[in-house]
């Protein structure tokens, strides 16, 4: 899925569900790291993040699992961004920076 196709994507949160080691090697701008196998332990923290939530990993498989899990317990406004690298490239093409957007 492309960021431009997600309503209010720039106001939402990119959640990288790769391991913390993978995240440290590279990640999309302004993304947060919640490893896929730990996401159920972070429900209260997730609930405080701005939506929409755009989940990324290496190719979209782990992020898809997290989205399915969260949908089954009632969360909405969730999107599978697929590859973190693809999202990073889209951010850079849109002129996105590391700085939070202000309006």
Separation, N- and C-terminal Cα atoms: 25 Å
Order of SSEs, N→C? Answer: EHEHEHEH
Helix-strand makeup class: alpha/beta
Q: Give the strand content.
A: 15-25%
Helix content percent band:
25-40%
Count of discrete structural domains: 1
The overall strand count is 4
If classified by CATH, what would the architecture be?
3-Layer(aba) Sandwich
What is the overall number of helices?
A: 4
Poorly predicted tracts of residues:
98-103
| Strand ordering within the main sheet | 2-1-3-4
**At the first level of CATH, what is the class?**
Alpha Beta
The Cα radius of gyration reads 13 Å
Taken from the alpha-carbon principal axes, the silhouette is: globular
Mind explaining what this structure looks like?
It is a single chain. It is globular, with a radius of gyration of 13 Å. The chain has 103 residues and is α/β, with parallel strands linked by helices. It is 32% helix and 17% strand. Residues 98-103 have low confidence and may be disordered. It has a single domain, classed as Oxidized Rhodanese, domain 1. A 4-stranded parallel beta sheet has the order 2-1-3-4.
